[in-house]
Specification:
Length: about 240
Amino acid sequence: MTDAHAASRGVGVVVVAAGSGARLGAGVPKAFVALAGRPLLGHALDTVAVVPGVVSVAVVVPADLLDTTGPLWSGVSLPSGAVVVAGGAERTASVAAGLAALDPSCDVVLVHDAARCLTPVDVFERVVAAVRSGAAGVVPGVPVVDTVKVVDAAGVVTSTPPRGSLRAVQTPQGFRSEVLLDAHASGVAATDDAALVEALGHDVLVVEGDARAHKVTTADDLAHAERLLAVPTPGGAS
Ligand code: CTP
Ligand code: MG
């Protein structure tokens, strides 16, 4: 089978929603916190459901929320064929649980934070297209507005990277599936999947991200997301 044929097998998406949301402190896991009356996870899955080429979806949730008929699931529509699995204590373990539940025939895998619940579908499309064009790993990123300092344990600045070379990265992060499986087999934990793939020596490409893919982390972020939802989508139905 040629690569061109292999490239048509389909996209798998792992949506990680198993975090506790300690920094938001809402009393329920962050992905189940309401945004405009529906859980963040519901908003995220609405977009995943319309990404072209997706054949398999794994939704990773806290172990005590596996029952999708439970009250916190109200307002969440699972994409057709999606499976729901329990996450782990660290994000990396949750991603691994989702990967294990995806259809193994997928040749492209995306990993997406439920907390980036307003990520537009065109970000997913850009990431998939770049993987299909040959990149081992692809992350959406946006320019950094602050000057960033590298500091040592005592807080002393050790370097100031040129801002023009920095990107704040988002999700979905996309990979050739065998590359991400290898990266997770290494057993190392990281805050993003691309770091695991970089550690194996693969090139990871940054494509254009979107301000709406910002991660809901704090109460201010949730309020910001509420404001974004109140603004009509350019070109969309009003
Ligand atoms: N996540 C996960 N499993 C974990 C930790 C995080 O599935 N053990 C998911 C979260 O649900 C979220 C994404 O990874 O969608 C990004 O993590 P983060 O923003 O850190 O969310 P939380 O860990 O829930 O928040 P906090 O760190 O404030 O507790
Ligand atoms: Mg966390």
